[in-house]
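subagent[fold] <- orchestrator: predict structure for attached chain, return tokens only, no commentary.
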Amino acid sequence: MASKARDAETKTDDGVWETVKVVIQALLIAFVVRLFFFQPFNIPSESMVPTLRVGDYLFVNKLSYGYGPYSFNFVAGFRDYEFFSVNKVPFSGRILEFGKPERGDVLVFKLPSNNKTDYIKRLIGLPGDKIQVRDGALYLNGVAVKRDKIEDFIETEKTGLRVEQFRETLPNGVSYVTHNRRNETFPGADNTGIYTVPPGHYFMMGDNRDNSSDSRFAHAVGFVPYENLVGRATILFFSHTDEASFFKFWQWPVVIRWSRIFNWVQG
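subagent[fold] -> orchestrator:
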């Protein structure tokens, strides 16, 4: 009897250890995937509406343009504790470049003035491009970007506000929808001077054109260095409204935006 009890105890211990090993292996795989391949981000602002909305969660492909000094965030959840965070790897340039950024890509990058802050915007201007906004219309190298008026957007989740929408198509064929709110959240956003993108830098803009702090404002974002790019936004894996709460599980079927889950990021 004692022998059988010892055998049962041994089997139980083996089962627990196997479970622990599986959990550890899964955590290591998740860590490697996050560190080198796909990093999750959530959208905290309305600057990329309608492409991205507050409450969206997406994956960023870190292999899109190779690895730069800001590609590795070892402990993203502990940024308030400096001794836990490694925000920049000590090398310059990029390695393992599998491709170059293209106009229309939706990118996550480190804010040039504060390399601990992540921004997400659409790439509009490449090095050497001349960018200008006139009466809300985008001009690229002196030529107006194709811009077609489409049906208005109605914000059903909040105010019911009706917003003008335009489908913009860049010279390389990338097409996406922009919003024109005609407000003064960012004075001067609809009429700017001419920006000439310097070598090794990019010009970023939000799709919510009147509610986006981007490269049009030198004091806020300005031109973004190539090395500051983290990766390209690829796919939404979750989305919820402002009313969502982890503890109000009975509301989950209503507050989750089911139609946005597993959508590719446009651009």
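orchestrator: received. Logging for downstream: The longest helix spans residues 2-36. The CA atoms of residues 154 and 160 lie 6 Å apart.
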